[in-house]
Amino acid sequence: MMDRRGFIIKSALFGGALWAAKGNLFAAEAFQKSRYKVAVIDLMILKRQKLGAVKLTHEIGADGLEVDMGGLGDRDTFDNQFFDKEFLKNYKSQLKEYGVQVCSVAMTGFYAQSFAKRPTYKLMLADTLKTCKLLDVDHVFLPLGVQGDLVKNPELRPALVKRLRIAGKMAKKKGITIGIETALDAKGDRELLKEIGSDAIKIYFNFSNPLKEGRDLIQEIEILGAENISMIHCTDEDGVWLENNTRLDMVAVKKKLDELNWSGWLVIERSRDASISPRNVKENFGANTRYVKSIFQ
Hints:
alpha/beta
């Protein structure tokens, strides 16, 4: 029979073990949250360079926000509101109030325009890097887009490589990484990065690219390697929410990223439900954010 003293000692030991287990659990959760952060895109939540983007991001439940450099058209550079001191001050105040972090600055004007041919690309790069510094951001998203598709337009490769080498030098001076999105497969991306030869240029990996081409997503991640991935567009084409997407095994994706010891931002771009209006951003991106967090955090 255990005496009172023995009972107290055993209870204390059990209680200590329980608290230790809880502490380990909390530590593991905190590690996952710091390892993988989830963001949305101001352009896709219909708040490009608007103060309301920050509050909406908070309401959606995301940790961060990818902001766009603004419209381009025939201008020499982007129509960028962040160079307005009053707007910048108010925007940063909103970020602080709602606990939202800007994860990257996007040059989405190059989805439709050619980075290989645009005469003022250096000015546009300089403005983007300056915006990064104003917002305390160290990542840029540069899509090579339709006109920079190296599968359909391989003749553009020399010009693109030359310009991306220059971009890499400009970014490195500022301590910033430029993540490019291409139409190449993982092996092709690795070869392109090797040709560029800049550690300030990496791949901004988008799940939907290999998926829509019928390639093995997990294999593509492994071939590309953690060291070559700057950030991830954790998304697929529109149609169904991520939780209902049968061709995107998010648990397997996390397992592979864990194995590769990758960490960083998972940015939700699309994966909107086709039965819901694209304007209902809270429902679409809220659902996807909750799902991604349930897997990665």
